[in-house]
Amino acid sequence: MLLEGSCHCQAVRFSVESHQPCPFMRCYCSICRKTAGGGGYAINLGADYRTLKVTGRRHLGVYQARIDDARGRRTSTGQRHFCKRCGSALWLYDPTWPELVHPHASAIDTPLPAPPQAVHAMLGSRAGWVEVAARPGDDCFEDWPDVSLAAWHERHGLRL
Which ranges constitute the DSSP H helices of 39-133? Predict the structure, then answer.
C-alpha cells in the first residue's frame, strides 16, 4: 500500500510503500510519549525504507534519544525524524534494521485500515495519567512484545 504523509504545516511531505499499514501497536514508552504526543502513546507503522520519497528535506530534524538502562547512558540508534518548522513527528529510522522505516500513523494522510485489535506495548513506562483503553482481545505488555509488525499482520491475514 502506498502511504502518503506530511507534517502539520505541509513543509515536509513523504510517501513510502508498506506491507504493514494497519495502525495496531500503541507504544507507551517515555520516548514515544514525549516526542509524539497524543494519548500518551505513539503508533508506528512498518514500511520499506528503499521506497521512502521526501520533499522538504531541508525542514527535517532528527532526534536520537538518550537512554539510561542496565548498560549505562547511551544514545539510541533510532533516528526520529520531525519537521523543524511545526514539530510534527514523522517517522523513525534505525540503521540496525536498514530495510525498514516506521512512519507515525499520525503523519499519514492516506486512509489506513482499521485494526481488528490493538497491542499496547511498554505499559511499564506509561504516564500515570494515561488510561489504557484496551478492548477485549487486545494484547497488553509491560515491556516490548516479541511479535513483529510483519508477524502481527500475517497472523491477522492483513499482509498486503
Answer: none
